[in-house]
Amino acid sequence: MRLKEKVILVTASTRGIGLAIVKACAREGATVLMAARNLDLARQEAAQLNAAGSCVHVLYNDATKPETFTTMVEDGVRKAGRIDVLVNNFGTSDPTKDRDLTHTDPAVFLDTVRLNLGSVFIASQAAARHMAAQGGGSIIHISSVGGEVPDVTQIAYGTSKAAINYLTKLMAVQEAAHGIRCNAVLPGMTATEAVESNLSEAFRALFLRHTPLGRIGLPEEIAAAVVFLSSDEAAYITGQLLSVSGGFGLATPLYGDLAKLTQRR
Asked: Catalytic: which of 157, 166, 236, 255?
């Protein structure tokens, strides 16, 4: 029960990594605020968790409507009395449109950056005001290794995640005086519906060939990092980018080919 008596707000929380975070935090004793656009689905998930003894509330949030990030925080404070941890899990990209510099429409680039970066900024700003008044808190961004390792495609997504990584450090420095910590978790390829539907099996195999641990990550493994950063065990940790990616980007760019040669010896 590492998160007992903590109130944790999670955005984009009805599936994939977001839902895994909700479940992990609830299991550790937190009161969890599920923020989602699909309220029916969120209520179904919350009802199941509450029936098992958890304490989960549902909040409305639509990333295409910036004002709902502020109302989400206000509603959360009204329901739970405070917010100890904000997990900015929302992120979006359309791989068919978000391509390289030459082939990406400027509107697609700007919209993707605005949604991904703007959602983090607005939600964090609203939550930080309450956290400062209550004596502190923790803000955790779900970023991506794509924000650290340049890719041959998804120029808007990569740019937005790189900006979120730097924003993490800025926020950590600027909000430390208010007792607010800020860190980011950087998933690698993770077994979510988005990966299943958007990435071919051939691409996944190629990606994993360059991942030292050689397998796809699980949403629960990302959630475990969030639980740690939310807990008092991480009370002296701020401004950090925690990669949960099986070692992707750690080795020489030739890793996949060299590892094959080494195995043949």
From this structure: 157
Amino acid type, 222: I
CA nearest to 143, candidates 189, 105, 89: 89
Instruction: Specify the pTM.
Output: 0.94
List strands edge to edge, sheet with 55-60: 55-60, 31-36, 7-10, 85-88, 137-142, 180-187, 241-244
**Assigned token pair, 50:** 């509450």
Tokens of 202: 């051939």
| CB of 161 closer than 8 Å to CB of 146 | yes
| Whether residue 157 lies in the annotated active site | yes
Question: Which runs of E-coded beta strand occur in the chain?
Answer: 7-10, 31-36, 55-60, 85-88, 137-142, 180-187, 241-244
> Ramachandran region of residue 199, left (φ > 0), alpha (ψ -120 to 50) or beta?
beta
Q: What is the pLDDT of residues 177-190, one digit of tens each?
A: 999 999 999 999 89
- Asked if residue 34 lies in contact with residue 46, where contact means CB atoms within 8 angstroms, the answer is yes
> Is the dihedral angle over the CA atoms 233, 83, 139, 9 positive or is it negative?
positive
**Number of Cα atoms under 13 Å in the Cβ half of residue 160:** 26
